[in-house]
Amino acid sequence: MGGQMRFLPSRRRDAYGLVPWGGPAPSSGSSTIVLPEVIERTDTSLDRSWLVRVFDNDVNTYEEVISILMLATHCTEEEAYIETWEIDHLGQSVVHVAQEDECHEVASVIRRIGIRVEVSQD
Q1: What is the DSSP letter of 47?
Q2: Distance in angstroms (rounded) separating the CA atoms of residues 61 and 52
Q3: Taking the mean position of all CA atoms in its chain, how far away is CA 107?
Q4: d(CA 71, CA 112)
């Protein structure tokens, strides 16, 4: 790689210190803002209005609760820790929001270690 280095000439910057990219100039036409169309969803099969709430007890350890939350909800260790802290300090925590059948599956996994779990509609 023996050769001489070449430096490109400095490019002009605009008033904001930005180098123009050479694309089309901004339009000086109308300043009308077009709002996006609102599409109302009528299919309720994607409704995620069910939740899983876990309650505190004096039996399970932080490690047990974190592990079961990660297993049941596929969340990260950090999220499971935060939810476990909420359960311990606030008495309960919503640990999952999904469709009804998925919430019941998650709750059944969590119940395996003796924790009180409630599935309800939001």
Answers
A1: -
A2: 20
A3: 20
A4: 11
Question: DSSP state, 45?
Answer: G
Kindly report the three-state secondary structure assignment for every residue of 61-106: CHHHHHHHHHHHHCCCHHHHHHHHHHHHHHCEEEEEEECHHHHHHH
Q: Which of 27, 40, 51 is nearest to 99 (CA)?
A: 51
| Secondary structure class of 46 (helix, strand, coil) | helix
Contact predicate 101/45, CB 8 Å: no
Question: Which amino acid appears at position 62 of this protein?
Answer: Y
Query: What is the tens place of the pLDDT at every residue in 12-25?
Result: 655 655 555 555 55
Residue 14 amino acid letter: D
Q: What length is written for the chain?
A: 122
Q: How confident is the model at residue 7 (pLDDT cuts 50, 70, 90)?
A: very low
